[in-house]
User: Which sequence fits this backbone?
C-alpha cells in the first residue's frame, strides 16, 4: 500500500511527534519561564493544585448572574508573586464523580494539593500529610482566622492514629439551614420563623400555610424537603434537635450506630407527619420547581445550602423575601451536617513546604474573597463579614455563617459510605408508606450494623 | 556458428530471465509479508487500547473480587465478597428490579415495534418520515431522555398525568412511589428502544420475498393469514436477535437509573439495578472488592440467560 520510503517517513514522523509531545513542558502556560528566579527559595518548584467545581482558568460569564467572573489566573499570579520562583499548575474537575476521580489522581500521584470533601475516607489510607507540625512550626499561621468549628469539624483519623488529627484546612464553606419565603408568610398572616425554630413551630406553621393562598388564590405548600438521596441528613438533624445523635465513634472499628434510638424514631415520625404539607414528589426530588422564583408556592424549605440560594435570589432581586433560620440544635447549640471542602497536602508531594504555603494562601483574605465573589462559595474565615460583597447580602449570609459555626462535629464519618444509603433507603421506605418509622429504622440499624461487622 | 551463438546467448537470456523470475517471486513474497506486517502495525494501537482498557480491567477486577479493597489498602479475603453479595437481600432486590424492568421492556417493545414496522411497511407514502420519527428517540442520549421523562411523569405538572386526568383516569405519582417507579423506567426504556426495534424489523420485512405473498394471495390467504403464516415465521431470526441484544442491554441497565433515582435507585431502592448496585458499592463507598464480585456475578447471570435465550430462539452464533 505504501512504498518503503513513505512508510519509513510516516513512522519517523510518528515517533518524533510522540517524542516531542512527551518531552514538552506540561505547565500549560507560556509564562512559566518568567518565574524562574534561581535565587529564591521556591525556584524551579511547580505546585500542582487540584480543585473541584466550576473553576475556570480564563475569565467567564456566570450562567446565573450574567456577570464576568475572573479566571484562576488571578490566584496563580498572586501566589507566584508572593512566592518568587514557584509555578502553580491547576488541575480542575467537575463535582460529578469527584470521589472516584480524586481516588484515581491520588493513586497515580497527580497533584501536590487536593481539594478533598471526602477527607475522612482518604486520610486513613495514608495518602495525606498530617498538618499539625506545620501549624505548630509556622508563626504566620493563625487558626483563629477560621469560622468557629471549621478546623475541628474537618479533623479525621490517620492510618495509625486513635485520635482525630488535622489533615486539611477549610477552603470552601458550606452549611445547612432552613429557608423560608417571607411573602407567603405575609400572605397567610403567619409570623416568620424564629431564628432557632423548634420542630413544633415548623410543623404548626407548615400546616397553617398549606392550601389556597388567601391573596393569590394559588395552591401553597407549607414545607418541602428532599425525601430521596439526602433524606438521611434531615432525619439525623431532627434527632440532634432532641438531644439525640446518629451514634458514636469515628474509626470504623469503634463506630456504634443509634439509628433506631427514640429520638430518631420521633424524628422520622415528624417527617412522615410534615410531608402531609409538602407537594407530591419529595421522594423523587420533585415539587420544588418554583422555589426561588416569583411564582414560588412553598413556604418553608428544610435542609438548604447557600449555593442554592444566594446567587439565584440576588440576581432576581428576591433576596429580601428570603428568610433564613437555623436547623434544629441540641441544648449545646449544635446540630446539622458539617459540609464544605477542605484542602490537603498529598503525602507523596515533592514540594510539601510550598504546598503548605498554598494552603495558607488559599485560606487567606485574598483567595477567600476571590472564591466567594467569583464562584459563590461560602468563605471559611471570619474576616469575610468585612467585605463589601458580603454587606450586600448580609441578611442572608449572617445566619448562614452562624450555621457554619454550629454544625455537628466531627463530620458524620459514614456520610459517604454504605450506612448513609441504607438509612436513606429506609427513610424513603417510610415516606412512601412501605414501612412504619420504627420498622424502617430497626431495619436501617440492623443492616448498618451488619455492614460494619462485615467491614471490620 | 551464428545459430550456435544465438542458441548460447538464447540460453543465457533464458537463464537470466528465469533467475529474474525467481527474484521477482521472492520480491512478491516479501512484499506480501511487509504488507501484512504493515496492517498488523496499524492494528497495534487499537490492540494496545483493548489490552489496556478492556483486558487489564477485566483481569484486575477479577483479582479485586478476592480482596477487601478501598483502592489503596487491600486485604485478601478469599471468597467472602462473593458470599456477601450472594447473601445480600439488597443485591437480590436489584436482580429482581433488573429482570422486572427488562422483561416488561422486551415483552412490550418487540411486539409493539414489530406492529409499527408492519404498519410502516404497508403504507405507500411517507415511509421514510415514519422511520425517522420512530428512530429519533433511539439517537437521543438516554441521560437527556431520562431528565425529560422526569418532567413528563411529574406528579403535578407532568404531561402524562394531565392526559390521564383529561381522560378521566386516575393519575400517578410515578417516580415518587416504589410501586409505580419501575413502570416509569419501563415507559422510558420502551420509548427509547422502540425505534431500533422498528428499523431492524423493517429491514427484515423488506427482505421477505414478495413472491411468497403473491402465491399466498393466489391460494386465497387473507392479509391476517399472510401476516401470521408468512411474515412472522420469516421474522424469527430478527426476533431472536432483538431478544438477545435486548436482554443483554436490560441486564446492564445503569444510566437512566442513575439519573432518575441516583446510585441507590430511589425511592426505597425500587429501581436500583445490578449496575447501580455495583456503582454504589464501588464508587460511592470505596468497596471495590464487593463491586468487583458483584460484577462477576452479573456476568455469570448474563451468560446463563444469553445461553438460554440462544437455546430458546434456536439462534446459531
Assistant:
Amino acid at each position: 500500500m505504501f512504498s518503503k520510503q513513505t512508510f519509513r517517513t510516516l513512522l519517523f514522523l510518528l515517533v518524533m511527534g510522540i517524542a516531542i509531545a512527551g518531552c514538552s513542558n506540561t505547565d500549560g502556560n507560556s509564562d512559566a519561564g518568567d518565574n524562574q528566579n534561581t535565587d529564591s527559595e521556591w525556584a524551579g518548584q511547580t505546585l500542582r493544585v487540584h480543585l473541584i467545581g466550576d473553576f475556570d482558568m480564563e475569565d467567564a460569564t456566570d450562567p446565573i448572574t450574567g456577570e464576568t467572573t475572573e479566571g484562576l489566573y488571578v490566584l496563580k499570579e498572586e501566589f507566584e508573586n508572593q512566592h518568587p520562583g514557584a509555578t502553580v499548575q491547576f488541575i480542575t474537575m467537575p463535582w460529578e464523580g469527584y470521589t472516584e476521580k480524586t481516588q484515581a489522581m491520588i493513586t497515580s500521584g497527580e497533584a501536590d494539593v487536593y481539594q478533598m470533601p471526602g477527607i475522612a475516607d482518604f486520610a486513613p489510607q495514608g495518602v495525606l500529610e498530617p498538618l499539625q507540625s506545620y501549624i505548630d512550626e509556622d508563626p504566620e499561621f493563625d487558626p483563629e482566622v477560621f469560622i468557629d468549628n471549621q478546623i475541628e469539624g474537618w479533623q479525621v483519623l490517620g492510618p495509625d492514629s486513635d485520635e482525630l488529627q488535622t489533615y486539611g484546612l477549610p477552603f470552601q464553606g458550606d452549611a445547612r439551614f432552613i429557608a423560608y419565603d417571607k411573602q407567603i408568610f405575609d400572605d397567610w398572616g403567619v409570623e416568620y420563623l424564629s431564628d432557632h425554630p423548634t420542630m413544633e413551630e415548623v410543623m404548626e406553621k407548615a400546616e397553617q400555610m398549606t392550601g389556597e393562598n388567601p391573596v393569590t388564590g394559588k395552591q401553597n405548600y407549607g414545607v418541602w424537603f428532599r425525601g430521596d438521596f439526602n433524606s438521611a441528613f434531615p432525619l439525623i438533624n431532627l434527632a440532634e434537635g432532641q438531644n439525640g445523635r446518629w451514634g458514636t465513634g469515628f474509626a470504623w472499628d469503634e463506630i456504634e450506630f443509634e439509628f433506631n434510638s427514640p429520638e430518631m424514631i420521633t424524628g422520622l415520625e415528624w417527617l412522615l407527619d410534615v410531608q402531609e404539607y409538602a407537594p407530591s414528589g419529595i421522594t423523587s426530588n420533585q415539587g420544588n420547581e418554583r422555589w426561588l422564583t416569583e411564582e414560588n408556592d412553598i413556604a418553608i424549605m428544610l435542609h438548604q445550602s447557600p449555593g442554592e440560594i444566594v446567587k439565584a435570589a440576588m440576581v432576581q432581586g428576591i433576596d429580601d423575601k428570603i428568610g433564613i433560620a437555623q436547623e434544629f440544635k441540641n441544648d449545646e447549640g449544635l446540630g446539622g451536617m458539617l459540609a464544605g471542602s477542605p484542602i490537603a497536602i498529598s503525602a507523596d508531594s515533592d514540594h510539601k513546604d510550598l504546598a503548605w504555603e498554598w494552603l495558607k494562601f488559599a485560606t487567606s483574605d485574598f483567595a477567600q474573597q476571590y472564591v466567594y465573589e467569583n464562584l459563590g462559595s461560602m468563605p471559611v474565615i471570619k474576616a469575610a463579614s468585612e467585605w463589601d460583597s458580603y454587606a450586600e447580602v448580609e441578611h442572608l449570609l449572617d445566619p448562614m455563617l452562624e450555621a457554619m459555626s454550629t454544625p455537628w462535629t466531627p463530620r458524620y464519618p459514614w456520610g459517604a459510605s454504605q450506612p448513609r444509603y441504607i438509612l436513606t433507603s429506609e427513610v424513603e421506605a417510610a415516606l412512601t408508606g412501605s414501612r412504619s418509622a420504627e420498622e424502617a429504622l430497626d431495619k436501617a440499624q440492623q443492616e448498618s450494623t451488619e455492614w460494619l461487622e462485615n467491614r471490620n | 556458428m551464428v545459430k550456435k551463438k544465438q542458441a548460447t546467448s538464447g540460453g543465457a537470456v533464458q537463464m537470466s530471465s528465469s533467475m529474474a523470475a525467481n527474484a521477482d517471486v521472492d520480491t512478491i513474497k516479501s512484499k506480501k509479508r511487509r504488507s501484512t506486517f504493515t496492517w498488523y502495525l496499524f492494528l497495534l494501537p487499537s490492540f494496545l487500547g483493548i489490552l489496556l482498557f478492556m483486558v487489564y480491567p477485566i483481569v484486575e477486577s477479577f483479582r479485586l473480587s478476592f480482596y477487601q479493597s478501598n483502592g489503596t489498602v487491600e486485604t485478601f479475603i478469599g471468597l467472602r465478597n462473593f458470599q456477601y453479595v450472594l447473601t445480600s437481600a439488597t443485591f437480590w432486590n436489584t436482580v429482581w428490579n433488573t429482570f422486572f424492568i427488562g422483561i416488561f421492556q422486551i415483552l412490550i417493545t418487540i411486539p409493539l415495534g414489530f406492529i409499527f414496522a408492519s404498519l410502516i411497511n404497508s403504507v405507500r407514502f411517507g415511509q421514510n418520515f415514519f422511520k425517522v420519527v420512530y428512530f429519533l428517540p433511539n439517537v437521543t442520549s438516554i441521560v437527556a431522555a431520562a431528565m425529560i421523562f422526569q418532567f413528563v411523569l411529574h406528579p403535578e405538572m407532568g404531561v402524562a398525568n394531565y392526559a390521564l386526568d383529561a381522560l378521566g383516569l386516575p393519575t400517578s405519582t410515578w417516580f415518587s412511589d416504589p410501586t409505580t417507579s419501575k413502570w416509569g423506567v419501563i415507559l422510558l426504556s420502551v420509548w427509547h428502544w422502540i425505534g431500533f426495534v422498528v428499523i431492524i424489523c423493517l429491514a427484515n420485512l423488506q427482505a421477505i420475498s414478495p413472491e411468497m405473498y403473491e402465491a399466498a394471495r393466489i391460494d386465497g390467504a387473507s392479509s391476517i393469514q399472510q401476516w401470521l403464516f408468512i411474515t412472522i415465521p420469516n421474522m424469527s431470526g430478527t426476533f431472536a436477535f432483538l431478544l438477545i441484544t435486548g436482554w443483554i442491554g436490560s441486564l446492564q441497565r445503569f444510566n437512566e437509573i442513575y439519573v432518575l433515582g441516583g446510585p441507590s435507585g430511589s425511592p426505597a431502592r425500587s429501581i436500583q439495578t445490578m449496575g447501580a448496585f455495583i456503582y454504589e458499592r464501588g464508587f460511592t463507598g470505596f468497596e471495590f472488592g464487593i463491586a468487583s464480585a458483584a460484577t462477576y456475578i452479573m456476568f455469570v447471570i448474563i451468560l446463563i440467560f444469553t445461553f438460554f435465550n440462544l437455546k430458546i430462539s434456536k439462534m446459531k452464533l
